[in-house]
Amino acid sequence: MSDIAIELIEKNLLSKDRVLDLGNCGLNGYLPEILSKCHWLKKVNLGNKYFDEDTSQWVYSRNSGLPNSFNGNELSQLNSLKKLEFLSCNNCEINDILFLTKLGNLKYLDLSNNKIDDCRFISHLENIQILILENSNIWDIGYLSNLNKLRKIILSNNNVERLNSLQNLEGLEYVDLSNNLISFLGFISNLANLKYLNLSNNKIYDISPIANLHKIEILDLSKNYIIKINPIEKLINLKSLNFSSNEIHEIPIRIVKNIKIDWLLENDYSLSNKVMLFDNPLSENIKNSIKIGGREGLLEFLKSIQYNQHTSPLNECKVIIVGLGSAGKTSLMRRLYDGSYKKGEAETHSINKLSKNFGEIKVNFWDFGGQHIKHALHQFFFTQKTFYILVLDGRKEEKPTYWLEQIDSLGRHSPVFIVFNKIDYPSQLEEIDTEEIRDKYRNIKDFYYLSCETKLNLNKFISDLSKCIAEADFLKEPYHDEFFILKEVLENVTEHYISYSQYEELVQKQKFKTIENKEFWLKTLHQIGVISYFPKVPDFQILNPEWLTVGIYHLFLHPICVSKKGRLVESDLYEIFKYPVINSINKKEFFYNNHHHKYLLNLMKEFQLCTENPIKNNEWLIPKGFAPKAKISFDIFRNRPLAGKLPVLYAFEYITWIPSTILRVIASLLPFAHEEDYWKNGILVKHAESNTQALVYGDEDSKRINVWIKGEQIREFWIVLDTVITMMSSFFETNKFQKIVFIDIQKNQFISYQYLLNAFIDGIDNFYHPEFRKNINVIDLLKLFKKNEDLKNEISRYRKELDENIFKDDNNEGKKTYQTLAELKLEEYERKELLKVYRNWKLFSLALFVISLISTSLIILSYEYELIISNTKWAIIKQSNMTKYFGFFIGFIWNSIVGKLLYDRYFDNTKQKTKIEQIEKEMQKKNNAGSYFETLG
User: What is the distance, to the nearest Å, from the Cα of residue 348 to the centroid of all Cα atoms in its chain?
Assistant: First the structure.
C-alpha cells in the first residue's frame, strides 16, 4: 500500500479538487480502493509527467516516490470516475488497455512508454481529442478511423507502416509519426487542417501528398529518402521546415522565393523559423551560398544560374581595430597597410579607413577612435562576418571584456585577435587572465604580444591574420557580375552618402535583372565596409563613415550642447552645424544641412543615444550632454522617508559593464523624469499614478544599475522600471545580468530574484542564510519584485498550479472547499496553511461525534447491565421515571448538538465557506502584521 497515494487521495477527498497527481507513488499492480470515492475527478496523472496544453510544456509529477507499475487490469477501478476527461499513464509498464472501454468521456490519453501492441479498445473513446502513444510496439492504427474529434496524435517510435486510417480525421492539427516505417503518404493529403507534421526517420521517397497541406506551419521530413522537394512550393505558411539527412540534390528557385524564412546547413533540430538542409548531397556552390548568405545568399546564387550570369567569390572583407585611445591602433593599422610607423602618432578622433589586398582578397581596415565618449558610436559599424582586432597596452583601466561583449553581441561569432602592444615598455600585462578570457569568448583566435615600434613579434601576427582571412568561408560566397558592377559604381561616388531613392535609381539605371535583391546587396556592402546601411533609418546609405561619426561627435561636444545640458531644439542644430565641421586630425571639411540634422538624430534615437522630449515638442534630449551630476542629494533621497516609508534598494547586476546601457535607460525613462533631474549617469523619476519616486543611476565599479524606490507604490514602480531596464539591457544579447534586492544596505547584503524563485519552486518558503546570519522569508522577498498574480504565473511555468484548471466549467455541484479557496485568490503556500487549519476544524467535530457516540453507548450498556455502580443504586434509578426521562432528554440534546456540528462542518457548504473566510481574514491580519514589505517600505 502506497502511503504517498493514500495521503494524496485523502487530501482530495477533503478538497474535492478535480485534479489528482498520483505519479511516482510507487503503486505496484493496484489502485487504492478509496480512489473510487473521488467521483468528481476530471484529471488523473499516474505517470511521471503529462503535457499541459495551456503552456505547451511537459509538467513532471511533483511526487518523489518510485514509478508506478500496472499490467492494466488493475486500472478498471478508474471506471467509477465517470467525469474523468484527462488520463496520463506514461511509463507504467501497461500491456492491457481493456479498462479504457468504459472511460467514454476521456479527451486526453497518454499511454506512451508502455508495452502496448493491441490498441483496439481505444476505438471506444469517441470524445478523445489528444492521444499520445509514443515508444510502444504499435503497428496497426486502424482503430483511429472513427475518432473524429482527434486534434492531436503522437505515435512516434513505433512500427506504423500505413496511414489510411487517418484519411477521414479532418480535424487533426498535430501529428507526430516520427521514427516509424512509413513509405507512402497518399492518405495524408485529406488532412487540410494540419499545422504540425513530423515524419522524421521513416522511409519516404515521394512527398507529393503534402502539397495540399496549405495550413501547415511546422514540417519535419528529416532522415528519409526524399530527392524532389517541389511539392512544398505553395506551402507559404511554413515557419519551420526540416529536410536534413535526405537525398536532395537541387533546390528550385520558386521554393526559395515563396518560403521566406532562413535557410541553414547547420545540424540544428530546434525547428525554429528556419529551413534545415543539413546532410544532403547539394552542390558545393549551393552549400556555400547557404552557409554564407542564408536564404538571401541562396536566392542570389540561384538567380545567377537562372539568368546565366557569371559568378565570382566575394573576396572582400572588413577588419575593425578597437581599443582605448593611445593604445597603438593607428600604428598597428599602418604596419598592416604599408609597414610604416610614425612615432607619436596622433589619436584617431573618428574612423580611419585604409584598404589593402592580401593576395586576392581586398581588406578594408577601420581604425576606431578610442576616446570614451566615442565608444557609444561603435555599435553603428560592428557587423557580422567581420574580423576584429582588439589592441591593449596593459593599462589598469582597460577592460577587455567590455569590448568583447560588444563584438560578441553585434559581431556574432566573428573572429577576434587580441594584441598586447608596447611590450617593450613597462606594463601590467600579467594582470590579464588570458585563459579565462579565451574560455568565455570562444571566437578569440589568439593573443599576441608585440611592439609596433620595434616590430617585435609583428610578422607572426600578420601571418596569422592573413591566413585566417584567406580561409574564411564567407569570402568564397559566389556573387554574380551585377553585384560587382553596383559595388564599383558606389565606390566611385565622391559624395559622403547617397539617399535611398538615389540608390534605387542607380540600380534601375543599370537595368539589373535581380533588382528585387537590392536589400541583400546593401547588407553585404555594409558588412564588407563599402557603405554603412541602417535598415530602420534608410534615408541615406553612408559611403564615408567619417562624415557620420564626425557629425555626431561634433554634436556631442559642441558648446551649445554642453551649455544647454543636452536639450536641443531645431535652431540649436542649425547653429551647431552652421559652418563646415573640420576634422582636427586630417583637416577634412564636412557639411550638414537641415535634412542631415534629422537623419543624425533619428539614427541616434534608433540606437537609444537620444530621445524626443515627451513634455516639450520639437526638443531633443541627448544624455551625453547632460549635467555631470544630479540636482538631488543621494544621501537625502536615501535617508528621508516618503509617505512614511524609507526606500528599497533594487539593482541590476551585470557580468560586464557596458556604459551605453545606462544611456539607453536614461533616454527611455525621460518621460518619467521628476523635476527635470537627469544627468550623464542617472535620472530621478516619479511614478505616473502616485508620489512614488525612484533614483536610477549606473555604478561602473560594482557593474550595477542601482534603483532606489520610495513612496506608496514601491513594488508597482519597480515593475515599470524593471520592464524598461530589462529591455534596454537586452540590446546586447550577451549582456547578462541578475536582478537583486538589498536586505541590509549597510552590510551590503543582497539576494537575487532568481535565487528566491528557485528556492520557492523547490518548496522552500524560509531558510537560514549562514553568511548573512539571518532567516530569509522567501515569500515576502518575492513580493518585493512582483504582484501575487504575476508571481503565480511565473511560478506556474515551473510548478503547475493544479487547481487553476478546476473552474473551466461549472456543473452546479455547489461551492466545494477548493472552489472557495480559489475565490479568495490565495497563493499555494497560504492554501496549504488554510487547508491545515480547516481540516483540523472538521476533524474536531468528527472526534467529538465519535467520543459522544462511545459515551452514549457506554451509558446505555451500563444502564441495561447495571455496570459501574451497585445494583441497589441502579434499582433506585430505574424506579424513578423523572431520572430516566431527564437522562434521555440530556442525551438527546447533547447528541443533537454534536450531530448538528458534524453536519455543519462536513455537509453544509455555507458553513464551510464562512469558516474558510474567517480563517483567511485571520491569516491576512497575521501577514499584514509581519510583512517584510511593510517593514522595508
Answer: 40
Using an 8 Å Cβ cutoff, are 434 and 446 in contact? no
**For residue 422, how far is the Cα from the chain centroid?**
44
Does the pLDDT of residue 461 top 90, yes or no? yes
Q: Is the pLDDT of residue 815 over 60?
A: no
Query: DSSP 3-state assignment of 633?
Result: coil
Question: What does the radius of gyration of the chain's CA atoms come to, in whole angstroms?
Answer: 37
Percentage of the chain exceeding pLDDT 70: 84
Q: What contacts 24+ positions apart, CB below 8 Å, involve 773-780? A: 774/743, 774/744, 774/749, 776/743, 776/751, 777/932, 779/827, 779/829, 780/931, 780/932, 780/933
So what's the pLDDT on residue 429? 53
Lowest mean pLDDT among 20-34, 267-281, 302-316, 855-869: 855-869
What is the pLDDT, as a whole number, of residue 247? 92
Which distant-in-sequence residues (6+ apart) come within 8 Å of 782 by Cβ?
753, 756, 757, 760, 791
Alpha-carbon distance of 606 to 882, in angstroms, equals 99
Q: What nine digits make up the cell of 335?
A: 604596419
Percent of the chain with pLDDT over 90: 25
To the nearest 10°, report the CA torsion of 591, 594, 598, 604. 30
Got the DSSP string for 414-453?
A: --EEEEE--TTS---GGGS-HHHHHHH-TTEEEEEE--TT
In degrees, rounded to 5, the angle at the alpha carbon of residue 13 between the alpha carbons of residues 10 and 19 is 100
User: Which triple of cell numbers denotes residue 455?
Assistant: 616590430
Higher model confidence: residue 189 or residue 801? 189
H-type helices in 41-134, by residue range?
none
Evaluate if residue 191 carries a pLDDT over 80.
yes
Does residue 468 have a pLDDT over 90?
yes
- Report how far residue 743's alpha carbon sits from residue 753's, in angstroms, rounded to the nearest whole number: 12
CB burial string 893-924: b at 16+ within 10 A, e below: eeeeebeebbebbeeeeeebbebbeebbeebe
> Average pLDDT of 872-882?
67
Give me the phi and psi of 621, to 5 degrees please: -115, 125
Please name the residues in contact with 354: beta carbons below 8 A apart, sequence gap of 6 or more.
Answer: 333, 337, 364, 365, 367
| pTM, to two decimals | 0.60
pLDDT in tens, 130-159: 999 998 888 888 888 889 999 999 999 999
456 in Cβ contact with 422 (< 8 Å):
no
* Measured distance CA(638)–CA(635) in Å, rounded: 5
> H/E element holding 683?
strand 682-686
Strands (E), 294-453: 311-313, 316-322, 351-358, 361-368, 387-392, 416-420, 444-449
C-alpha cell at 107: 479527451
pLDDT of 446 > 50? The answer is yes
Report how far residue 68's alpha carbon sits from residue 808's, in angstroms, rounded to the nearest whole number: 29
The distance from CA 318 to its chain's CA centroid, rounded to whole angstroms, is 33
Residue 209 DSSP class: G
Write the DSSP string, 532-596. Answer: B--TTSTTEEES-HHHHHHHHHHHHH-HHHHHTTTEEEHHHHHHHTSS-EE-TTT--EE---HHH
Q: How far apart are CA 26 and CA 302, in angstroms?
A: 60
Task: Report, as an integer, the average pLDDT of 621-648.
Answer: 86
